Amino acid sequence: MQRANPRKLLTNIVRDRLRERLMSGTYAPGAKIPPEDELTREFEVSRVTLREAVRGLVEEGYLSRQHGLGTYVTSRPKLRNNLDVNFGVTQLIESLGMKPGNREATILEKLPPRRISDALGIGQDEPVVVFERVRTADDRPVVYSIEYLPPRIISQPTEQLRNLSGSLYQLLAAFGQSVSHGVATIKPAVADTKIAQKLQVELGALLLYLEQVDYSADDRPLLLSREWYRTDELECTVYRKGPA
Q1: Are 68 and 84 contained in the same domain?
Q2: Where are the alpha helices (DSSP H) in the chain?
Q3: Rounded to whole angstroms, how far apart are CA atoms 76 and 228?
Q4: Is 219 helix (H, G, I), strand (E, B) or coil?
Q5: Residue 203 near residue 191, CB atoms below 8 Å
Q6: Nearest by Cα to 65 from 51, 78, 86
Q7: Is 85:239 a contact under the CB 8 Å cutoff?
């Protein structure tokens, strides 16, 4: 059995304790964190361990380093979306210790555009459930989404979605419709009047647009989602293999 690295365990402990202080406001946004000597004495760790913990919090967006000046608390951490993993927005927000929520949710059934029905593998004369909402992180609007579901996917979809407070993926799984994988298209977008109001950004603000079809294990389309992300609140990463 492989033994855990003691220094790595200490680093994680220190990082978690510092993160708690940042999230609770003990270290205020814009403030400089205490000097290394003070923190190493308090946590009884080496400078190397402390620096690794701080580096992790910089990567998570909680801290920023200013050359020659020190390390400062950011105004708020960005959502970091690893595009290699098919995370839902709810899980993405929760992964940073923030509280996910919905605003301005609307649900209706209507005939979709041709490209939506084709993507979902349904006839043009079949209605879909359209679920529109603003996703929040700690009550801040971060994503505006429109999701299209064939009514056959879950029973009483309007009622189920009206009462939804968490992840749509979890709701689908509860009805035996687990998402196995998804295919996404990502491109830049700008906020029109409607989206600017929804996300509380300036008209014409740069956004990240993601459109994705989610599939079951047997490749049945379950859901088509269209999402507009605030770029000042979201940072995306992609794992890229070398050419070899």
Answers
A1: no
A2: 6-24, 36-43, 47-60, 89-94, 114-120, 157-162, 168-174, 193-199
A3: 20
A4: coil
A5: yes
A6: 51
A7: no
Report how far residue 168's alpha carbon sits from residue 25's, in angstroms, rounded to the nearest whole number. 31
Which structural domain range is residue 190 located in? 79-237
Amino acid identity of residue 99, one-letter, is K
- The structure's pTM equals 0.66
- Quick one: tokens of 69? 């000046």
Cα torsion angle, 74, 77, 16, 51, sign: negative
242 in a structural domain: no
The total domain count for the chain is 2
Q: Which residues contact 50 (CB under 8 A, 6 or more apart)?
A: 14, 36, 39, 40, 43
Q: What is the CATH number of the domain that holds 39?
A: 1.10.10.10
What integer best gives the mean pLDDT of the chain? 84
pLDDT digits (tens, 9 = 90+) for 92-138: 777 777 788 888 888 889 999 999 999 999 998 999 989 999 998 88
CA distance 105 to 192: 19
